[in-house]
Structures are given as C-alpha cells and as structure tokens.
Design brief:
Elements lengths: L8 E4 L23 E3 L43 E4 L1 E4 L3 E7 L9 E9 L3 E9 L2 E2 L9 E6 L9 H6 L14 E8 L12 E8 L2 E3 L4 E3 L4 H10 L13 H12 L1 E3 L5 E3 L5 E4 L4 H11 L3 E5 L2 E5 L6 E5 L9 E3 L10 E8 L5 E4 L3 E2 L1 H6 L6 E6 L5 H16 L3 E6 L11 E4 L7 E10 L5 E7 L9 H4 L23 E3 L9 E6 L7 E10 L6 E2 L8 E5 L4 E9 L8 E3 L6 E8 L2 E7 L6 E7 L8 E2 L9 E4 L6 E9 L9 E7 L2
Parallel strand pairs: 1-2, 19-26, 21-24
Antiparallel strand pairs: 1-17, 3-16, 4-11, 5-6, 6-10, 7-8, 7-11, 9-10, 12-13, 14-15, 17-18, 20-25, 21-22, 21-23, 25-28, 26-27, 27-28, 29-30, 30-33, 31-32, 31-34, 34-35, 36-37, 37-40, 38-39, 38-41, 41-42
Helix pairs in contact: 2-3, 2-4
C-alpha cells in the first residue's frame, strides 16, 4: 500500500465500531480517519427511511421493517424500486389494474394486474404464486394467463395488455429495465373465493454481474460479486471498476465459492446471497446486508474498495515493540455489555414460503460457565441468506470472534501505514505470547504515526465440523387460524346403486366438511339426456339427498362458507356404457363379452327368458371384468342379457343390450 494518507471506512460483519465518521467513499471522512460499521449490529450511518411513509393504515405493511413485504404485492402512489440478488420469491408494487368482461360475458370477469418484481433486468422469472397456490394448480386451469418480462433495455410493451385493455396499456408502456409480470385472471368463486390474490414469483435476479475471474457478465449468487455490482450500479454507489481492488475481490469471490460440508451430507457454497432489498433502505443498509451474507467486510482505503469474505486472515505484518511510538494498552476482556455466549438468528427459509425463520439457536455451555451461568444472547438477522447451514456457520464465527476478547490500542509509528483495516497482523510484544489479530481501527495521530486498534482473532474462529457444529433444524410451531375465505371440498361422494332395471330416484350422500365457517352444501345433478347441470333445491344442511330421476344421472356437491366462499366440486359422474356387448353359447351356459369401461369397478347383469327388459332380473354375480360365463343352464335354453356398469362412487351407466345366446 503506498505511503499516502488514506481515507478509510469499513463496513464489517460483526465487530464493534472503533470510531465514528462519515461516508463510505471518504467524502465525509476526515483525513486519516478510520471506522468500522457493523453489518448486523447498530448502525453508525443511519439508513434512509422510505421517501413516503408506509403505515399499516395506508398500505398494510411497513417496508422498513426487516423482512417485511418481501413476497407481498402492494399498491402505493410512490415507492422505491427493488433489487433482487440470487434466487428468491419476491413480489412488488402493482403499477396497473384493469378489469373487463370475460369470455362468458360476465362484467369484470377478467382481472388484470402488472406487478414490478425488480428495478433492473433479471435472468428469469419462474413459477408465479397466486396467494398460496402455484399458477400450475389444477384449480386455476383455464383461468390464469401470465406474461413475463425480464427487464431488457429494449423490451417491447406487453402485446396482450395492448390488445385487451382498450387503450389503457399502450405500446409506450414498455417497462424497459424493469422486470415484471402481467397477469390476467378469470375470477370465479371456486378458484378465487377471496377475490384477486397476492401475486409473487420465483425470480433469478440481477443478470449483469461481472465476474473478473472469467470476464463473463451474467447472473451470480456470489455475495462478493454482487457487492461489487452494487458498488458500480447506477442504483448503488455509482463507483467505477477502477475504484475496486480486483485481487481482493477475486480472493473474496473464491472464498464464497468454496464448498463446505453440511449435516445433510451434501456440499454447498460457503456463502451465497439470495434475497431482495429496497432502495428505500439506503446504501449503507443494503451494503451491510450484502456484507453480512458473507460474514466479511467492505474496506474503503485510499479511495478504493477492498471486499473481504469471512475467512481466516493471513497476517500481513508482525507488530513488535519496534513499531511502537508510545505506550500500548491491552484490554484483556470485553465489557460485560459487549459480551455474549449465545446467538439467535433469523434467515429466509425457502421451505417456509420464503419467510423469515428462526435458525437453531447456538448457546455455548463453556462460555455460559465463564459468565457465571447466565445465558447472554445476541440476535442477528440475515435477510439475504436462505441456507440454515450457512447461517449456523456465521453464527458460530460471530460467537467465537466475540470470545476472543483481547483488544490492543497500538500507537504505531509510520511503519503501520502498510496496514489496512480488516487485514491480519500478529501482535508480538515483550512479555506477551504472540497472538493473531485483525486491524479494526485506524487513524492518523496528531503527533505523527498511526493509532491502531487490533482485535484478537485466530483461525479457529472459522473451524467447522458439520457433524458436531451444525444443529438439526426443528419445525417451528405454526398457529393456523380458521380462514373464513376458504372452505374444504367434501372428501367423498356416494350414490345409492339401484338393483332394478328401472328407478324413480337416486340417493346421493357426501362426507361432511369439518369447518366452523360451514353454512351449507350446494348439490347439482345432470341427467344423461340433459347437457347442463341443474341445482337441487336451496342450500342443503344435511349430507344426503334423494333426487328424482329415471335415467343415469351425474351428481356433484360443494361446501359453502358463511362468507359466501365455496369449495371445489366433488363429483359422481355417469360411467361409460359397455361397448360392443356379445353373447355366445357355451357348454351349460352363455359367455358374455364386450369392452369393460375404464371408469367402472363392477358390472350388473340383468337376465330374462325373453326379449323383455321388464321381465329381467339381476344376477347375483357382479363381475369386475369381461368376459363372464353364465353357467347352470341346460342345453337349448336361450337367454337375453342387459349389462350396466357401476362406478367407484356407486353411480350406474345406461344399459347395454339386449344380447342373447343359447346354451350348448
């Protein structure tokens, strides 16, 4: 490092502030000042609040709260753009709403919405979620259309919106540089009982990230590369690549990509970044989150950025008595207020709908004993981390770093100009065993020289044995409250199977729905000679009905909630009829053949001595396939047969026949 007076600032992952100063680029830092800002602790630089207050009374969520609104679509007159790193489930502001008659002529049957997911181009927009269901859910078949736009600089306006919104969305609405989804829903009570749902999507984020190791530009979930992208982005610090120390960046990127074993027996990258940030959080807050994702530090020295990922520090120098210009001060232990022996953390769990989730807490019994038996916790947040294994590694490093309690105030001569904050150094003073440390504070002294603050840290801080150190993830207890806007579908339906060739009514029954919000049931039927469903009376309070009909008839039932929401239909359809039935005489009987329908489970056979259906009686046997041999007849006896299949629900088909044959 050149022997010039550096302007230095540090954004670090887990160390206390050594001094209070100004801006990250040094514009607000006095000559020779050095400082450290924690990535997960208190902010030295206050984060800028959203430009328009967002209170529950106006929007239903607070955009400044940690983890708030990550997957919620919102309507606001003014809001900040979002940045998506890596892969995560996100939503965003709704910038367009529209309704129109649907293909059945229903007023406002079609609902249109445009949701901006990111204020930049992205690699892909994957699965879209409507409420708590995927767009591929069977209940949405034929009801959902989603157009994806990745935010290319030259992207065209959505053609479907132009064609279907009556001039509300025009060719000028291109959304260049904005990744968004245009959604059209055909609103039905069955699919959307509570009205238009929340819209979110799985997004693979920023795709213009430069990797200096390969020279390629594309998508990456490497925290060091994503931080470098943010430093140079128009929505970030607007630095140039000449301002970034490339060797340090490459070293940090390599550390992030190292493979580390997990309790599950698989390997994952040491650090990844997967999440969304809002520009309203402010540059320092966003930078702090990116740094926290790799347990590292961002150092600005001499007007250049040095990016570091969490890993053992190689000593850049050995500080001895020859480097002193005054008396050294060694603090053997931290103040009680700065000490902790347990760590609790929150991260984002994809398996929990990408919501903030508690990681298994870490409490070190040996450190609890050192602290007189009192458990002292530190709470941490990792909004851009989606791996519980990664979170636990960072938690352990944070705890071990805190328990290395020696701190040295080292008044050095000008030889210390060769050191930067966050670099490693070996402290080797008289009457003191040498120990490794990091530079956490740096400032020029008025009398000449450099005042250093050195915090003890050794490579053991980063030791990790997944079989021992990684704790099992327990299922967090969930409180499930009744939802008056949803009602379950009856689990089953059954039809009373008739035994005669004719009938005047069919009995139908269904399983009760266990819900405190149940109002009644709707029953509909459709005789074979009618092409439309017909309602059966008003709402049914019972779970059975007898419906007049003299022909094969389909039935369906659904539950209705007191809120008016309805469930899906549970159906008992008319099974197909036996096709191409034949009867052939055999020795002592008749063989019946034909095509046994796929939706049938058994067969009813009606037999008569003449071609008279009214005189036919049902055979006791109910075969489950064809052919079937009717035995017990004498040679020369002729019989006529009619065949009818029965479905799994007990419903019957039309009769096939007659066919006849004479026993041999």
């Amino acid at each position: 490092m050149p022997a010039a007076v550096p302007l230095i600032a540090v954004v670090a992952s887990g160390v206390a502030s050594a001094a209070v100063g100004g801006g990250v680029l040094g514009a607000l830092v006095g000559a020779g000042a050095a400082l450290v800002v924690t990535a997960v602790g208190g902010a030295i630089f206050p984060a800028r609040k959203p430009s328009v207050p967002t209170t529950p009374a106006t929007t239903g969520f607070d955009a400044s709260a940690p983890g708030a609104g990550r997957t919620q679509s919102v309507r606001q007159p003014i809001t900040e753009h979002r940045i998506v790193f890596g892969r995560c489930k996100v939503s965003g502001p709704i910038v367009f709403l529209h309704s129109a008659p649907d293909d059945q002529g229903r007023e406002d049957g079609y609902f249109y919405a445009v949701v901006v997911l990111a204020g930049h181009s992205v690699r892909s927009i994957g699965e879209v979620w409507l409420g708590d269901k995927s767009e591929t859910d069977a209940s949405f078949a034929g009801l959902v259309r989603i157009d994806r736009h990745l935010g290319a600089p030259d992207q065209a306006a959505d053609a479907n919106l132009i064609a279907e919104t009556g001039g509300q969305w025009t060719a000028a609405h291109r959304g260049r540089g904005r990744a968004y989804v245009a959604v059209r829903l055909k609103l039905t009570a069955e699919a959307f009982p509570a009205g238009p749902p929340n819209i979110a999507a799985i997004v693979e984020g920023a795709d213009t990230i430069l990797d200096p190791r390969t020279g390629q530009v594309g998508w990456s979930d490497n925290p060091a590369l994503c931080l470098a992208w943010y430093l140079t982005a128009p929505c970030g610090w607007r630095a140039s690549w000449a301002d970034i120390d490339i060797p340090a960046l490459i070293a940090a990127a390599n550390i992030c990509d190292e493979l580390v074993g997990t309790r599950r027996g698989v390997h994952e990258k040491r650090y990844t970044v997967n999440g969304r940030v809002s520009l309203g959080e402010g540059k320092i807050a966003i930078t702090r989150k990116l740094v926290a994702a790799m347990a590292g530090a961002l150092v600005v020295s001499g007007g250049r950025f040095f990016i570091h990922a969490g890993a053992p520090a190689l000593p850049a120098a050995t500080l001895t008595s020859d480097d002193l210009r005054g008396d050294v001060t060694i603090q053997g232990s931290r103040p009680r207020r700065d000490l902790f022996n347990g760590v609790r953390a929150v991260y984002v769990e994809p398996a929990a709908n990408w919501q903030p989730t508690d990681a298994p807490p870490l409490l070190a019994s040996n450190y609890v004993a050192e602290d007189g038996g009192e458990a002292i916790w530190r709470d941490m947040e990792f909004p851009l981390t989606t791996s519980v294994s990664t979170v636990q590694r960072i938690m352990k490093a944070e705890l071990e770093r805190n328990r290395r309690q020696r701190e040295v105030a080292f008044p050095a001569n000008l030889a210390a100009l060769r050191l930067r904050p966050w670099e490693g150094a070996t402290v080797a003073l008289d009457r003191l065993a040498p120990f490794p440390a990091r530079v956490t504070g740096w400032s020029l002294a008025p009398d000449g020289g450099v005042n250093l603050t050195l915090a003890e840290e050794d490579p053991a801080v980063w030791d990790w044995n997944p079989a021992v150190d990684e704790r099992a993830t327990g299922e967090s207890p969930s409180v499930v409250l009744p939802n008056p806007g949803r009602i379950a579908t009856p689990a089953s339906i059954a039809v009373g199977t008739p035994t005669g060739t004719s009938f005047a009514a069919l009995a139908v029954s269904w399983a009760a729905v266990a819900s405190a919000h149940l109002a009644n049931y709707e029953v509909e039927f459709m005789p074979a000679s009618v092409a439309a469903w017909q309602g059966y009376g008003a709402g049914q309070g019972a779970t059975a009905a007898s419906i007049p009909t003299a022909e094969p008839t389909a039935f369906r039932v659904r539950a209705v909630a007191r809120s008016g929401a309805v469930s899906g239909w549970r159906e008992a359809l008319v099974p197909a009829t036996v096709s191409a039935p034949t009867a052939t005489g055999i020795a002592g009987g008749v063989r019946l053949s034909g095509s046994f329908p796929a939706d049938a489970v058994r067969l009813q056979i009606f037999e008569a001595a003449s071609n008279s259906l009214a005189a036919a009686s049902k055979l006791a046997a109910e075969p489950t396939s064809l052919f079937f041999d009717r035995t017990g007849l004498s040679a020369g006896q002729t019989r006529w047969y009619w065949l009818r299949v029965v479905s799994a629900e007990g419903n019957v088909s039309a009769l096939a026949g007659p066919v006849s044959a004479t026993a041999l």
